[in-house]
Amino acid sequence: METIKQAFLEDPTYVYIALGIAMLVLAAIGYERRRKADAWRLLIPPALALIVLVVSTLVQTDREKIIAAAKDISRSFEAGRMDQIPRRLDPNFTATIDNVALTKPMVEAFARTSKGKYRIGKVSLTDVEVTVTGKQARMKAVTRIQFAAEGMSGQTKLAWNVLWIEQPEGWLVLEVPEPEQAKGL
Prior knowledge:
This protein is of the alpha+beta class. Helices cover about 45% and strands about 35% of the residues. The protein has six helices and seven strands; from the N terminus they run H-H-H-H-H-E-E-H-E-E-E-E-E. It has helices spanning about 1-10, 15-35, 35-40, 45-60, 60-80, 105-120; strands at about 90-95, 100-105, 120-135, 135-145, 155-165, 170-175, 180. A hairpin with a 2-residue loop joins strand 5 (about 155-165) and strand 6. The mean pLDDT is about 85.
């Protein structure tokens, strides 16, 4: 079921390819038979493609909601809007970052201190994998962090394994274990 949901709602590329092949087959049949009914059948694949496009655009899956929330946290941090980060955290949030145990009330101050201390410029989210199981989800992702200090250029990559929980207000971060240094840049 997840594969079908992902194929039709999140990344319908393969559906479009299949519809393109179906269109070619219908065109070949229509060319051989040369009947008006066969010409009308050529409208079916583009119509189905349009329906898939509309549905995939209008429906946002849990996976897409989690990725959007993670990107919102990243953008808020990047822009220095640390007060926006706690709204994406569950009241029972816990994290371990730089061997420091954090609770939700501590996050804003820690984020502000880290951004200034390490002179973090850009934060990019890559290699995102989200597995949703009921009202919880596990997100494995890599952040590429670029430093913006004068005379200092560089970047690092951290691998995260974040636990999310679905609440009435949306998907919220429940637990963030210590991130690991990701391989390669």
